[in-house]
Design brief:
Jelly Rolls; 431 residues; Transferase(Phosphotransferase), domain 1; four-stranded antiparallel sheet; alpha+beta; Phosphorylase Kinase, domain 1; 19 strands; 21% strand
């Protein structure tokens, strides 16, 4: 069967070719059982039949299904199926609308805004954290392996050389010099022991390119590239984009450090720092208030009744103190957000469709549904006067101690249940 006249593979209809790469040709397909369009990657017949490299190529091709197929994450391309039809090997995966990769945003004349770069790398860091906890190391993080959807979201793909660190890891690709040289970590180049930190170093290179349009270790040949990755620090990224804040430079340098002990240990560590940087990019500078003053104000709130001082300190340091003037919008109806807000001073108005529904005083809180499920906000919150809030991000809170997380979750759920019961009672009275 020729791949030029494909009409069906297994139960899938083959509609048309939509892409071609080193590992296979990608077709737009249709799954009649699930009633959805899919992407079908078909292995190159000439590479499968090569006497010397055919078996290795086949193993790499199906390795994507073996590794990525066990991962379910919103920022990782889903693998649905894999099989052989006659002599044709294929993998069925999630269809990503949009058709462009991060490479589009790695050129000096097409750079994305700083907050968009932070958002994209934040999502990739969380996706990698999830994959690493499942025992999967990607080993080929680069802009062309990260797709951008029509809505601007990002999804990681191409797990063809991924490595499993547990269970049936003998079935995955062997260790050694594998990957794309321009995005390799020092330990990949020296064929040293590979950990999840390799992916984070590669993600740091991608971040550098997204911020500057330049490669941090640009070299005219392979040997010079290796020398730079192993022994030289990249140029200060602000040479190419002076408006990059110091906090972002610090994060980038930590991701790109050659010393694994000083590099980010887990993707969630990187994501947490990026979350704080994202907040500072979007918000105007606030009048400084000391941590001690924040602690004293927060400690007095009923929300933290029963919290030991040490855990209150954890929350204060994990959260972000925010000050607003009268009339400032804090959250906007219809926007996505995963933060929970505790009112420390002042009062806020809950508005829907421009109409005020109720006011929330100091000690109260809001944003629980967005925090819990990262859904679109169902109301707008506006400061009714000078107002101070403690903003708690769902990613950052995972960095506090387990006891603190449990205590925080108990109060959070109690607040959520109370809010839902009040709403239910109000609805019953209306009907």
């Amino acid at each position: 069967m020729s791949t030029e006249v494909l009409e069906r593979l297994g139960k899938y209809q083959v509609l048309r070719e939509i892409g071609r790469g080193s590992m296979g040709t990608v077709y737009l397909g249709y799954d009649p059982y699930a009633d959805r369009q899919v992407a079908i990657k078909v292995a190159h017949a000439e590479q499968l039949n090569d006497e010397e490299g055919g078996e290795r190529y086949r193993k790499m091709f199906f390795n994507e299904a073996h590794t990525a197929g066990r991962l379910t994450h919103p920022n990782i391309i889903g693998i649905y199926d894999a099989g052989v039809d006659g002599e044709i090997c294929y993998i069925v995966m999630e269809l990503v609308e949009g058709g462009q990769t991060l490479k589009t945003f790695c050129k000096p004349d097409t750079l994305a805004p700083l907050e968009k770069v932070v958002e994209m790398i934040f999502k990739m860091a969380k996706a990698l954290d999830y994959a690493h906890k499942q025992g999967v190391i990607h080993r080929d993080i680069k802009p062309t392996n990260i797709l951008v959807t029509a809505s601007g979201d990002v999804k990681l793909g191409d797990f063809s050389i991924a490595h499993l660190t547990k269970m049936d890891s003998t079935k995955t690709m062997p260790l050694g010099l594998v990957g794309s040289p321009r995005y390799m970590s020092p330990e990949q180049i020296t064929e040293d022991y590979i950990t999840n930190q390799t992916d984070l170093f590669s993600l740091g290179i991608v971040m550098y390119e997204l911020l500057s349009g330049k490669h941090p270790f640009a070299a005219e040949n392979f040997s010079r590239l290796v020398q730079r990755i192993l022994n030289e620090d990249p140029p200060d990224v602000r040479q190419f984009r002076p408006d990059i804040p110091e906090e972002l430079v610090r994060i980038l340098n930590k991701a790109l450090t050659k010393d694994r002990a000083a590099r980010y240990q887990m993707g969630m560590d990187l994501a947490s720092d990026l979350s704080r940087a994202f907040d500072s990019l979007l918000e105007a500078p606030q009048e400084n208030i000391s941590e001690q003053e924040q602690f004293v104000a927060v400690k007095q709130l009923d929300f933290f009744d029963g919290f030991p001082d040490a855990e209150v300190w954890e929350i204060v340091r994990a959260g972000k103190w925010q000050d607003y003037r009268s009339g400032d919008q804090i959250i906007v109806e219809g926007e996505l957000d995963d933060s929970f807000y505790i009112i420390v001073h002042g009062e806020v108005a809950v508005q829907k469709g421009g109409r005020e529904l109720r006011a929330l005083p100091a000690g109260d809180c809001f944003g629980e549904m967005g925090y819990l499920a990262k859904t679109k906000r169902t109301a707008t919150i506006v400061a009714k006067g000078p107002t101070s809030l403690l903003k708690v991000n769902s990613t950052v809170i995972t960095q506090v101690s387990l006891n603190c997380q449990v205590r925080f979750l108990k109060v959070f759920l109690r607040t959520l249940i109370h809010r839902l019961s009040v709403t239910t009672e109000k609805m019953s009275q209306e009907f």
